[in-house]
């Protein structure tokens, strides 16, 4: 954990231009934008980066077609432009994907109505994606035999985008970019509150790994704590225009239900959108939309039954899915930004994921409410403009802080990988060539992996059964990705925990070697810590009547 230790020392030694509390998508994109444009930035998170809402999404990068029904056309236009921008600048990570939507009898609109909506949606997205199509039930069945069309009136196909990897990984790459630009970042560092001393914020923080408490000083303080923004504002005595209300959403990860690389969309029994989403060798199904009072949530028996019941009604599966088919779950809250008296009178299910930035000009404090992954580049740019307005020098205001390396560099990597025969090492169950995956995840640093394999062919061996990760990747991850606990890798830097059943992971002989590479002398401690936490979850599920997979 050398990288984390070095950053902790730097947190304690200097005064920063900006300190960001919270390493989800809002905090991570803000850190990358500010540091890329020359601002001296520190970023802390009380857990791991992307450890809250940002690791529980549907992995969709979409323009918010559902908000058209509530008339939020300006928001949809803005999100469509953001989606297009991500597609252009992250071609390896953000991909266009087709949505196949089925409309059943009894739905509130005839299928032609939402189909016409997809055309308006396409136009609002500047015609950036493939054209929509109207489909009769027979055409739906022909495109996707797994759909149960007995009760279908028709449907439509249109395009949006999704993350080819996992959401938490995408978020972490912004953190890694900020580090590359000179920012200081540390996970498992909790803010205990802050106060002003002259022109500075003094934030009392607690290192949750070492147990040490110390102060961090900055000229501007940004509260990007996601669902916990209101909680942290209480610690810093901030009064804001907005607040959060919470919607809980869950997803279930099950064996692959269809070989097609498209998203199946339906309206559940309550009239809400839910999806069947490709997830590597698995399928992700969900989501729910339940109002809750707290960000701390868990999957309940009712949640699981609701998702399984709805999916079994709408898919023509040989054997209906049940609890034993669930490999993993995802459960988090959507923090929805509302005014202090808002969110109660309006239909809760129609509240959008728009973001809001409240600014205390005199105190040089920002609070970021709401938001979603699709809007991350806008959040970064807005934060830079606001920080500059507060008097912080932005040395390189026109620098483009986001995006993948140039295509010429990618092509050079792929050419070298081809000459080495790298793709011959691709696991037979993988959904893409190994060279494509390494470039998407590591960019320029993927060249270091080629060099490692060239020096020692053993570095090209797959280490964990059921997971397409090479031995050389763990050394790179150890040096660059601040993996502090085993879960940080298994759940967030990768999606191994989501696609490999617990029993297979526990029996994997390579997991212990991976831990040794990542943690050295602390390997056995981190491995025991991980399985102890897993056992606690299993026992809790058992009390609630669930069976672990």
From TrEMBL:
Q: Which UniProt keywords apply?
A: FAD, Flavoprotein, Oxidoreductase
Q: What is its EC number?
A: 1.-.-.-
Enzyme type, top EC level: oxidoreductase
Q: Which residues form the signal peptide?
A: none
Swiss-Prot/TrEMBL cofactor(s):
FAD
- PANTHER family attached to this UniProt entry: GLYCEROL-3-PHOSPHATE DEHYDROGENASE, GLYCEROL-3-PHOSPHATE DEHYDROGENASE, MITOCHONDRIAL
Say which family it is in.
Belongs to the FAD-dependent glycerol-3-phosphate dehydrogenase family.
Which named protein is this?
A: FAD-dependent oxidoreductase
Species assigned in the record:
Halomonas elongata (strain ATCC 33173 / DSM 2581 / NBRC 15536 / NCIMB 2198 / 1H9)
